[in-house]
């Protein structure tokens, strides 16, 4: 069956490619946040353990929304570590950093996901893809807030 929702095929492709980067960054951030949830130690442990859990839980839902939007646009969503590694701008953590380093890295990584989402925005907007614009707006707001919460924790 052909797809005709009023968004040109080439526009859908460009948007899906951008969303694939958002998905890769989001999934990498999900894994990193979950890892830090498991491995955080120190005086702020209870608060950071809860904060990281709240954030990775929200990311789990977000990656599904982004992947589904890619599928709605008619393209396959990346779903392997190899694909994510090729697309992501966020680096995986090596070893177990200090609690402060975890917070700083996650704040920077949330800002990176916000930038990835913002980069797709012009293509979605010019294609009058309001559904993607709405999704991107929600993702940018969520990541900017998460980064703010983490920065405030590190202050």
TrEMBL record:
Keywords: DNA-binding
CDD domains: DPS
Pfam families: Ferritin
Ferritin/DPS domain sequence ranges: 17-153
InterPro entries (alphabetical): DPS_DNA-bd, DPS_DNA-bd_CS, Ferritin-like, Ferritin-like_SF, Ferritin_DPS_dom
Keyword DNA-binding appears in the UniProt entry: yes
Gene Ontology molecular function, alphabetical: DNA binding; ferric iron binding; oxidoreductase activity, acting on metal ions
PROSITE patterns, per the entry: DPS_1, DPS_2
Recorded family membership: Belongs to the Dps family.
Protein name: Starvation-inducible DNA-binding protein
């Amino acid at each position: 069956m052909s797809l005709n929702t009023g968004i040109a095929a080439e526009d859908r492709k460009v948007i899906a490619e951008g969303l694939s980067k958002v998905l890769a960054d989001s999934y990498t951030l999900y894994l990193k946040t979950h890892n830090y949830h498991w491995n955080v130690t120190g005086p702020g442990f209870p608060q950071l353990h809860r904060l990281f859990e709240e954030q990775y839980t929200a990311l789990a839902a977000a990656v599904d929304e982004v992947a589904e939007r890619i599928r709605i646009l008619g393209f396959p969503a990346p779903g392997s570590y190899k694909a994510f590694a090729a697309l992501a701008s966020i680096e995986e953590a090596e070893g177990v950093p200090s609690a402060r380093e975890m917070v700083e890295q996650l704040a920077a990584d949330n800002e990176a996901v916000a930038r990835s989402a913002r980069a797709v925005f012009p293509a979605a907007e010019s294609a009058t893809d309001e559904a993607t614009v709405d999704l991107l707006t929600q993702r940018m707001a969520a990541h900017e807030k998460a980064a703010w919460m983490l920065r405030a924790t590190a202050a």
